Amino acid sequence: MGYVLQNEDRLVWHYEKNGCYTVRSGYWLACAIRDRGVGEVGASSINFENIWLRLWRLQVATKVKVFLWRCMLEILPCRANLSVKRVVSNPICFRCHQAPETVLHALWDCPAAREVWQFSALQDSCTSKYHGCFLNLFRYILTVLTDKELRHFGYICWNVWNGRNDQLFQGRKPNAFQSYQHMQEMAEEFYHANRTYACATQEGSNLVVNWERPPAQFFKINVDGALKTNDSVRGLGVVIRDDRGELIAAAAKPVCGMFTPNATELFAIRFGLQLAKDLGLQHIYLESDAQAAIRMAFQCDADLGYEGVLVNEIQVLANSFHSYVGQFRPRTCNRAAHSLARFALSISDLIVWMEDGPECLSPILTNDVMLIS
Ligand SMILES: [Zn+2]
To answer: Do 81 and 59 form a contact (C-beta atoms < 8 A)?
Structure first.
């Protein structure tokens, strides 16, 4: 049973001989759909090019954009599409058994999808109309929703599809309200992260000091610590990039204990050095926005108390590199590590990312590289 179901969810791109999607055939299909006049239903005057433009300009994560794009091209592996390709014999929705599971049905019309949408104000403005296909629905909502609502729409669709897959492959029915809330938060978080950095860009490089690449052959390690008042957890964040600004690794780790801000920053420095050492790096630039911690760690002899123990460990670690520099930089240079330190407050154990960082990091990394003069 499980084997059959897994087989069902195979995406075959039948516009290329080998079944794999390419940009060329995607573009070809987009033109073909446009020429066929798909999307003529509905009162909207938005043409095909504008739909695409609005989609790619939407301030949501790339994965959500690509997902919506696949929905509009009707290439999501829902049952109706799979039955056309004879991958499955029955096109009927496995959740409600009421209708063929088209993309529109799976994400919008199915009672299981409605359970999520009922929490959203979006449904009032859209449910009264007959949309026919997902592209028409999207085309219609572009005319009635605000940008913020559009962003939420994207995340909710994406989540409804993931919930559907969870139910199909894991037999787990997601909680509709939690899904809705979580998606709304994700949409807002992504948007505000992007906006903050867009604002920083506009302020100009005269006012704001930005992240800089390390010298050739060096790796830059940004570290930061975070804490919430009255909470006994501290968050540590590390981001390691090469001399082109490419992400090598990132890590987030919570530590338990009512440590002072300074001790938390020392923990973050040690954490960053340890990760760089584990990765086998030899030439490093370590940066923190905590001036006192940097001075303590790299410029003076070990102090008394547990902070002294940390400083000792930092110095032993630092000396094990071929060459190292530890320096203080303003917060504007340390945004990536800062966001991971904040993120670390919400997790229960260490997370390390290699090459691909978490979603919250990508706008910051992109922005840091764009701001390099
Ligand atoms: Zn259904």
So the answer is: no
Bridge-based pairing state of the strands 233-241 and 323-328: unpaired
Q: Strand, helix or coil at 199?
A: helix
* Distance (Å) from CA 163 to ligand 1 centroid: 13
Span of 16-25, 33-42, 316-325, 327-336 with lowest mean pLDDT:
33-42
Q: Please report the pLDDT score of residue 302 as a whole number.
A: 53
Q: What is the pLDDT averaged over residues 325-348?
A: 92
- The C-alpha R_g of the chain, in whole angstroms, comes to 25
Q: Superfamily for 219-370? A: Ribonuclease H-like superfamily/Ribonuclease H (3.30.420.10)
- The whole-number average pLDDT for the span 89-96 is 94
CA atoms of 298 and 285, how far apart (whole Å): 12
CA of 285 to the centre of ligand 1 (A): 55
Q: How far is the CA of 117 from the centre of ligand 1 (A)?
A: 14
CA of 138 relative to ligand 1 center, distance in Å? 19
Residues forming a β-bridge with 252: 237, 351
- Cα angle, residue 111 at apex, residues 166 and 103 outer, rounded to 5°: 65
Percent of the chain with pLDDT over 90: 34
Pairing of strands 323-328, 283-288: parallel
Q: Is the pLDDT of residue 199 over 70?
A: no
Rounded Cα gap, residues 6 and 204, in angstroms: 51
Ligand 1 center–CA 105 separation, angstroms: 6
Contact 239, 250 (CB under 8 A): yes
With CA atoms as reference, report the closest residue to 152 among 116, 121, 176, 183.
183
CA–CA separation, 241 and 221 (whole Å): 7
**d(CA 70, ligand 1 centre) in Å:** 19
Residues around the ion ligand 1 (C-beta < 5 A): 93, 95-96, 110
Task: Note the pLDDT tens digit of each residue in 324-335.
Answer: 889 999 898 999
Q: From the CA of 102, how far away is ligand 1's center (Å)?
A: 9
262, 234 contact by CB (below 8 A): no
As annotated, the residues of the chain forming the CATH 3.30.420.10 domain(s) are: 219-370
